[in-house]
Amino acid sequence: MKHGILCHKLAGQIEHHSVAMAEIQDRRTNKRIPGAGTLHDYANLYFDAHNPMLSKLRAQNEDICVLQVDVRVLDLPGVIIADRNAASDWVRFFPVGEGLKALDRDRVFARYWTHPENLFEEMSHKSEKCAEVLVPDCVMPGFLLGAYVANEVALQKFQQLNIGLPVRIRRDIFF
């Protein structure tokens, strides 16, 4: 089972610890994309890193980064857009052109997804914040443009990896 997004030499050079939540991965294991494979046949990329997944990882801010991926990944054959978290029961899957039109950009890129006055709305918006680009198999390192980290400690740890990607602190992405 794969939940990583890197393949080729770069992945073998870095010690990897999955940040995936087991219960979500269990849902993704058996979730089929109509006319395609299972979610684990794809590398998943979020449109907006400032999302509920990253919020749950806030205790790990000194040990994680957000990778900046070239938009050209959308031109790869077989890429699919999920209009919300792909493991959701309400997700719709689209080819890239249709999927980009189907996204509610205001909701996907909203700073906050909480709606304390309406829990159904909050649950729906939380899922939309995790809209995904699904890339068959993996994302090759050539599509990686850089990385963002939460703080100086994370910056130093990333630089020690010496992988040649530019990195900068972006506190606004992290929680």
Mean pLDDT: 92
Proportion in helices: 25-40%
Radius of gyration: 16 Å
Number of helices: 7
Global structural class: alpha+beta
Distance between the termini: 29 Å
| Oligomeric state of the chains in view | single chain
Task: Please tell me about this protein's structure.
It is a single chain. By secondary structure, the protein is an alpha+beta fold. It has a domain of 119 residues. It has 7 helices and 7 strands. The chain has a 4-stranded antiparallel sheet, with helices on one face. A 3-stranded mixed sheet has the order 2-6-7. The two termini are 29 Å apart. The N terminus is likely disordered.
List the helices and strands and how they pair.
Layout (H helix, E strand, L loop, with lengths): L8 H5 L8 H9 L11 E5 L5 H5 L9 E4 L10 E3 L10 E3 H7 L2 H4 L10 H10 L3 E5 L7 E6 L2 H10 L5 E3 L6
Parallel strand pairs: 6-7
Antiparallel strand pairs: 1-5, 2-6, 3-4, 3-5
Summarize the entry for a quick read.
The protein has 175 residues and is of the alpha+beta class. Helix content is 29%, strand content 17%.
List keywords for this structure.
29% helix; 3-stranded mixed β-sheet; single chain; 175 residues; 7 helices; alpha+beta; globular
